[in-house]
TrEMBL record:
GO function term, MF aspect, one: iron ion binding
UniProt KW keywords: Heme, Iron, Metal-binding, Monooxygenase, Oxidoreductase
Pfam families the UniProt entry points to: p450
Binding site for heme: 234
Organism per entry: Sphaerobolus stellatus (strain SS14)
Name of the protein in question: Cytochrome P450
């Protein structure tokens, strides 16, 4: 994932700006990127084929958890060479697209909760009122929890993990707002700014689920931007929102997310600081997670023991 982030960052490799450099041999000054490309290709190749071959060789052992992306296809019989290739690289695309983007959003969610106890209280009040305290929430409860929907949407507006989306280049000449854009121009979609435009979002740097006033239309406008545009829009957006939603709902229904304590027992309030890379994470911070009640602890324990089965 680190190599991907480095490779996709505009300006990191001169050859992206001066494509003629691709004809420079790897041993000449300016051709070093070819060695890097070869090495990184080996890494991603091993990762893709390694996990696929592991999946095939463990199909019968019970080590492979089902259902999984490859399972349904492999159960149909031995795939052709082309299909095998497609399966391996669609798996790499799914994991590559999902892993760090989702990890970063989950970390940002916990940071937002530590910084905004008032949001937690409001969400917990909604969960307790709608679901009660006798069962764990379910993804189907989403329909009845507008504040929780706003809480998750606001995560993507406040600090999406892909502030500059994925870089593209124009496939033909274009004119936008009177500006001529030539074919092959690099386009960096500034998703962060679109979601922090003060003309649309009052106090854009503030994490505030109330700004949507419960309107799903206003929330959709955020999610329509956060996952990119056009035919290369993120295919995992629904999965990503559902994952965030499940994690937020499960933790807030059962736990309080609290700041860590220093040696004197004082709360350490973390800064809202983020790395500036293709995929943006929060700077490291500490927190405490405490079950809201003995009943909540038991519900969680039961759910964990069911998962282990
Ligand atoms: C918080 C989570 C996520 C965020 C913020 C995110 C964001 C994005 C963005 C901005 C793009 C670029 C779209 C464009 O080019 O305009 C993208 C592409 C992509 N995403 Fe996601 N994504 C997330 C989760 C996922 C998940 C869970 C998956 C798969 C299960 C996934 C798979 C992909 C793939 C395969 C692409 C490349 C699509 C293409 O180029 O045709 N993403 N994502």
């Amino acid at each position: 994932m680190h190599n991907f982030a480095e490779a996709a960052l505009p300006g990191n490799f001169l050859v992206d700006t001066l494509p003629i450099l691709r004809y420079v041999p790897s041993w000449m000054p300016g051709g070093g990127f070819k060695k890097t490309a070869k090495e990184w290709h080996r890494v991603v190749d091993n990762a893709g084929w390694g996990i696929y071959n592991w999946r095939v060789s463990n199909q019968e052992t019970g080590q492979v958890l089902l259902p999984n992306l490859w399972g349904a296809h492999l159960d149909e019989g031995t795939p052709s060479e082309q299909k095998t290739f497609d399966l391996v690289w669609s798996g790499v695309a799914a994991v590559g697209g999902a892993l760090d983007t989702t990890r970063a959003m989950v970390a940002k969610y916990f940071l937002a909760m530590v910084l905004h106890p008032e949001v937690q209280r409001k969400a917990q009040e909604e969960i307790d009122r709608v679901i009660g305290k006798d069962r764990l929430p379910d993804i189907k409860d989403k329909e009845d929890l507008p504040y929780m929907r706003a809480l998750v949407t606001e995560m993507f507006r406040w600090e999406s993990s892909t502030p500059f989306g994925i870089i593209h280049s124009t496939s033909g000449d274009d004119v936008y707002n009177g500006v001529t854009i030539q074919k092959g121009t690099t386009i960096i979609p500034n998703i962060w700014y679109m979601l922090h435009d003060p003309e649309i979002y009052t106090n854009p740097s503030v994490y505030d689920p109330d700004r949507y006033e419960g309107s799903d239309v206003a929330m959709k406008r955020v999610l329509d931007v956060a996952f990119g545009f056009g035919r290369r829009v993120c295919p995992g957006s629904h999965f990503a929102v559902a994952s965030l939603y499940s994690i937020a709902l499960a933790t807030l229904a059962t736990c309080d997310v609290l700041p860590a304590l220093d040696e004197q027992g004082r709360e350490i309030i973390p800064k809202a600081a983020f790395t500036s890379a293709l995929i943006s994470f929060p700077e490291p911070f500490k927190l405490r997670i405490r079950p809201r009640s003995e009943k909540a602890r038991k519900l969680l324990q039961e759910a964990c023991s069911l998962t282990e089965l």
